[in-house]
Amino acid sequence: MYQMGSISSNNRSIFHISILFLPCFTCLAFCQDFQGLSPLISPPLIPEILNFLDQRLALVYPIIQGFKNTITSDPLNITQTWVGADICNYKGFYCTSPPDNDSAITLASIDFNGFQLSAPTLDGFIDQLPDLALFHANSNKFSGTISPKITKLPFLYELDISNNNFFGSFPMEVLGIPALSFLDIRFNFFTGTVPPQVFTQRLDALFLNNNNFMQGLPENLGSTPVLYLTLAYNKFIGPIPRSILKASATLTEVLFSHNLLTGCLPYELGFLRKLVLFYASNNFLTGPLPCSLGCLAKLEQFNLASNLLYGQVPEVVCALGKLVNLSLSSNYFTKLGPKCTKLERSGVLDIRKNCIPDLPGQRSARECAAFSLHRRYCSNPASFNFIPCQVPSSSHPRIGTKRNLVGYSALLRQAVEFPGRN
């Protein structure tokens, strides 16, 4: 894997390539009588000489020009810069030395984010760029399928085709990309199921939100090594698998919001010691909050609004020292302790539209009574009181400072700022 760096033309051999633009003559007599033509008639074009910094750039030149010819809309006139031999100065194209040859110069990265380009397919383009390491194309109008040949790219480690018009089933071809660590296919029209092997890929970030995937969360969900996992705005059903425990060493931000998830929260969530953000709002989750959530010492954002949760909000959760947002609105909680009450008054806890007596902005008594008539059961109820860590004894939780989180920005129609990326 290689990083973008400065480019020096010293000690680089100039690869010379001539491309001939010859006029087509269909009349032999015209060619024979050319010397007698009026001076207003131009002679044949002189061949255009293109001098490339490196043979690797010369090889990708016709691929880029071929892709340029497939673009059907370019409202920002991006492709006007895709002219001549200086590929490294084409808008959206970036060059550096490849890992296999420090003295060479090659096309390493493409960033089309926000270009609004339209093309029927990317096949024959990115899969034909042998040294490509990063391809970002957020907010365009590309469609079609992903070529199986993309698995032949040895250096490709970031693929972002989010906010485009791709459709069909999950693009299985991406699973064969050997170095892939960042996959973003959000805001497209993919349907069907997500293959379970996705969650065993060596990825750092997996953004699948805002598609039309419909399935239960796979049992091997916890096998994923990702830091950032976004599955929001799909049609995932069923409970959150207890196997999520296995991701405790890496999982930092999780977005499950706006799906069809059911069942009770697994107490294993309390073992996700790296967790900073967890959103599972607008589902059908039920049961009490497990006290194990009080072990999430790094948690800053926790959103379970618009579910079917009930009971008392655990004091150990409200005592978490780094919380800046605890959203439990539109549920059926019935009791707050002193720590949670203090958090509600500070504005960190949103507990509107619940069933807490003497607190303003709650559901009607009739609505709360109707909910209580329908018994809901969670397996292993004793686990909800289990706290698998030593929680702080302070009765005055520290309110953390707000910050922008990578996972939440995945729900916006813009490029994701990934940590460590220039």
Automatic annotation (TrEMBL):
It comes from Populus tomentosa. The keyword Secreted applies. Residues 1-31 form the signal peptide. The lineage of its organism: Eukaryota, Viridiplantae, Streptophyta, Embryophyta, Tracheophyta. It is found in: Secreted. Its main location: secreted. The keyword Mitochondrion does not apply. InterPro entries: LRR_dom_sf, LRR_extensin-like_regulator. SUPFAM superfamilies: L domain-like (SSF52058). Coiled coil: none annotated. This is Leucine-rich repeat family protein. One of its GO terms (cellular component) is extracellular region. Keywords: Leucine-rich repeat, Repeat, Secreted, Signal.
